[in-house]
Amino acid sequence: MLKGLKVGFALTGSHCTLKDIMLEVRRLVAEGAEVFPIISEAVDTMDTRFGKAQAWKEELESITGRRPLSTISDVEPVGPQKMLDVLVVAPCTGNTLAKFANAITDTPVLMACKAHLRNQRPVVVAISTNDGLGLNARNIGILLATKQVYLVPFGQDSPNNKANSLVAHMNLIADTIEAAVAGQQLQPVLQEYRIES
Length: 197
Fold this sequence. Notes:
Elements: E1 6-11, H1 18-30, E2 34-39, H2 41-45, H3 53-64, H4 72-75, E3 86-92, H5 94-101, H6 108-117, E4 123-129, H7 137-144, E5 149-151, E6 154-155, E7 166-168, H8 173-181
Parallel strand pairs: 1-2, 1-3, 3-4, 4-5
Antiparallel strand pairs: 4-7, 6-7
Helix pairs in contact: 1-3, 5-7
Protein backbone atom coordinates (compact mmCIF):
# COMPACT_ATOMS: atom_id res chain seq x y z
CA MET A 1 0.00 0.00 0.00
CA LEU A 2 2.92 2.38 0.65
CA LYS A 3 4.78 1.46 -2.53
CA GLY A 4 5.35 4.54 -4.67
CA LEU A 5 3.71 6.86 -2.13
CA LYS A 6 5.47 10.22 -1.78
CA VAL A 7 5.76 10.78 1.96
CA GLY A 8 7.05 13.96 3.54
CA PHE A 9 8.49 13.08 6.94
CA ALA A 10 8.94 16.09 9.22
CA LEU A 11 10.84 15.71 12.49
CA THR A 12 10.66 18.15 15.40
CA GLY A 13 12.68 18.37 18.60
CA SER A 14 11.41 15.56 20.81
CA HIS A 15 14.94 14.19 20.78
CA CYS A 16 14.15 11.28 23.10
CA THR A 17 11.99 9.70 20.38
CA LEU A 18 14.30 10.20 17.38
CA LYS A 19 15.82 6.72 17.62
CA ASP A 20 12.35 5.17 17.34
CA ILE A 21 11.46 7.57 14.53
CA MET A 22 14.45 6.48 12.45
CA LEU A 23 13.17 2.89 12.62
CA GLU A 24 9.84 4.05 11.22
CA VAL A 25 11.50 6.03 8.41
CA ARG A 26 13.45 2.89 7.51
CA ARG A 27 10.23 0.90 7.53
CA LEU A 28 8.51 3.31 5.13
CA VAL A 29 11.45 3.14 2.72
CA ALA A 30 11.55 -0.67 2.99
CA GLU A 31 7.85 -0.77 2.10
CA GLY A 32 8.52 1.21 -1.07
CA ALA A 33 7.59 4.76 -0.08
CA GLU A 34 9.57 7.70 -1.42
CA VAL A 35 10.46 9.65 1.73
CA PHE A 36 11.28 13.35 1.72
CA PRO A 37 12.83 14.33 5.09
CA ILE A 38 12.08 17.72 6.65
CA ILE A 39 13.62 18.88 9.94
CA SER A 40 12.95 21.62 12.45
CA GLU A 41 15.64 24.00 13.65
CA ALA A 42 15.98 21.97 16.86
CA VAL A 43 16.72 18.76 14.94
CA ASP A 44 18.97 20.68 12.55
CA THR A 45 21.13 22.34 15.21
CA MET A 46 20.80 20.82 18.70
CA ASP A 47 23.19 18.25 20.12
CA THR A 48 21.57 16.44 23.07
CA ARG A 49 22.24 13.42 25.25
CA PHE A 50 20.20 11.47 22.70
CA GLY A 51 22.53 12.26 19.80
CA LYS A 52 24.25 14.90 17.73
CA ALA A 53 22.37 16.93 15.14
CA GLN A 54 24.83 16.09 12.37
CA ALA A 55 24.50 12.36 13.06
CA TRP A 56 20.68 12.51 12.87
CA LYS A 57 20.87 14.43 9.58
CA GLU A 58 23.37 11.97 8.12
CA GLU A 59 21.21 9.03 9.16
CA LEU A 60 18.13 10.57 7.55
CA GLU A 61 19.99 11.20 4.32
CA SER A 62 21.44 7.69 4.35
CA ILE A 63 18.00 6.11 4.82
CA THR A 64 16.08 8.27 2.33
CA GLY A 65 18.76 9.20 -0.18
CA ARG A 66 17.72 12.85 0.20
CA ARG A 67 19.17 15.80 2.08
CA PRO A 68 16.77 16.92 4.80
CA LEU A 69 14.91 20.13 3.99
CA SER A 70 15.63 22.56 6.82
CA THR A 71 14.42 26.04 5.88
CA ILE A 72 11.07 27.64 5.14
CA SER A 73 12.18 28.37 1.59
CA ASP A 74 13.22 24.70 1.15
CA VAL A 75 9.69 23.49 1.88
CA GLU A 76 7.58 26.23 0.32
CA PRO A 77 7.39 24.32 -3.04
CA VAL A 78 5.59 21.43 -1.27
CA GLY A 79 2.29 23.19 -2.02
CA PRO A 80 2.58 24.66 -5.50
CA GLN A 81 4.52 21.69 -6.87
CA LYS A 82 2.24 19.16 -5.15
CA MET A 83 5.35 17.28 -4.08
CA LEU A 84 3.76 14.89 -1.57
CA ASP A 85 0.88 12.45 -1.26
CA VAL A 86 0.98 12.59 2.54
CA LEU A 87 2.95 14.53 5.14
CA VAL A 88 3.93 13.02 8.49
CA VAL A 89 4.99 15.13 11.49
CA ALA A 90 6.80 12.76 13.86
CA PRO A 91 7.68 13.39 16.54
CA CYS A 92 5.38 16.39 16.88
CA THR A 93 6.33 18.41 19.96
CA GLY A 94 3.83 20.34 22.04
CA ASN A 95 5.22 23.58 20.63
CA THR A 96 4.69 22.49 17.02
CA LEU A 97 1.30 21.01 17.93
CA ALA A 98 0.13 24.31 19.47
CA LYS A 99 1.33 26.39 16.53
CA PHE A 100 -0.18 24.02 13.95
CA ALA A 101 -3.56 24.04 15.71
CA ASN A 102 -3.52 27.84 15.78
CA ALA A 103 -2.36 28.46 12.18
CA ILE A 104 1.11 29.78 13.07
CA THR A 105 3.60 29.15 10.27
CA ASP A 106 7.08 30.14 11.42
CA THR A 107 9.17 26.97 10.96
CA PRO A 108 10.01 24.63 8.06
CA VAL A 109 7.76 21.91 9.49
CA LEU A 110 4.78 24.24 9.89
CA MET A 111 5.29 25.72 6.43
CA ALA A 112 5.33 22.19 5.00
CA CYS A 113 2.02 21.48 6.78
CA LYS A 114 0.42 24.66 5.48
CA ALA A 115 1.73 24.16 1.95
CA HIS A 116 0.58 20.53 1.88
CA LEU A 117 -2.88 21.22 3.30
CA ARG A 118 -3.59 23.78 0.59
CA ASN A 119 -3.78 20.79 -1.75
CA GLN A 120 -6.37 19.06 0.50
CA ARG A 121 -3.95 16.22 1.16
CA PRO A 122 -3.51 14.36 4.47
CA VAL A 123 -1.20 15.35 7.31
CA VAL A 124 -0.41 12.63 9.85
CA VAL A 125 0.62 13.85 13.32
CA ALA A 126 2.48 11.70 15.88
CA ILE A 127 2.50 13.68 19.11
CA SER A 128 5.20 13.61 21.76
CA THR A 129 4.50 16.20 24.43
CA ASN A 130 4.74 16.50 28.20
CA ASP A 131 1.62 18.71 28.28
CA GLY A 132 -0.79 16.73 26.13
CA LEU A 133 -3.27 16.51 29.00
CA GLY A 134 -2.43 20.04 30.12
CA LEU A 135 -2.59 23.23 28.07
CA ASN A 136 -2.11 21.31 24.82
CA ALA A 137 -5.19 19.13 25.34
CA ARG A 138 -7.36 21.70 23.57
CA ASN A 139 -4.93 21.81 20.62
CA ILE A 140 -5.14 18.04 20.24
CA GLY A 141 -8.92 18.46 20.15
CA ILE A 142 -8.63 21.11 17.44
CA LEU A 143 -6.47 18.84 15.28
CA LEU A 144 -8.77 15.84 15.81
CA ALA A 145 -11.59 17.97 14.38
CA THR A 146 -9.53 19.39 11.48
CA LYS A 147 -10.20 18.10 7.98
CA GLN A 148 -7.25 16.23 6.43
CA VAL A 149 -5.39 15.94 9.77
CA TYR A 150 -5.02 12.44 11.22
CA LEU A 151 -3.40 11.49 14.53
CA VAL A 152 -1.24 8.46 15.13
CA PRO A 153 -2.89 6.67 18.08
CA PHE A 154 -1.41 7.86 21.37
CA GLY A 155 -1.49 7.30 25.11
CA GLN A 156 0.00 8.27 28.44
CA ASP A 157 3.58 7.03 28.32
CA SER A 158 4.35 7.69 32.00
CA PRO A 159 1.18 8.47 33.98
CA ASN A 160 2.80 7.96 37.38
CA ASN A 161 5.74 10.28 36.73
CA LYS A 162 4.42 12.66 34.04
CA ALA A 163 0.64 12.61 34.25
CA ASN A 164 0.12 15.11 31.41
CA SER A 165 2.54 13.43 28.98
CA LEU A 166 1.18 11.90 25.76
CA VAL A 167 3.21 10.04 23.15
CA ALA A 168 2.05 8.45 19.90
CA HIS A 169 2.63 4.77 19.29
CA MET A 170 5.30 5.39 16.67
CA ASN A 171 5.07 1.80 15.40
CA LEU A 172 1.59 2.73 14.08
CA ILE A 173 2.84 5.51 11.77
CA ALA A 174 2.69 3.33 8.62
CA ASP A 175 -0.80 2.05 9.49
CA THR A 176 -1.98 5.62 10.15
CA ILE A 177 -0.59 6.74 6.80
CA GLU A 178 -2.48 3.99 4.97
CA ALA A 179 -5.72 4.90 6.75
CA ALA A 180 -5.20 8.65 6.17
CA VAL A 181 -4.60 8.20 2.44
CA ALA A 182 -7.96 6.39 2.37
CA GLY A 183 -9.57 9.29 4.27
CA GLN A 184 -9.88 7.36 7.55
CA GLN A 185 -8.64 8.01 11.08
CA LEU A 186 -6.93 4.88 12.44
CA GLN A 187 -8.85 3.62 15.47
CA PRO A 188 -8.80 3.53 18.38
CA VAL A 189 -7.07 6.88 18.75
CA LEU A 190 -6.47 6.39 22.46
CA GLN A 191 -4.27 3.35 23.06
CA GLU A 192 -2.79 2.46 26.42
CA TYR A 193 0.92 1.96 26.97
CA ARG A 194 2.02 -1.05 28.97
CA ILE A 195 3.39 0.57 32.08
CA GLU A 196 6.29 -1.13 33.82
CA SER A 197 5.72 -1.30 37.59
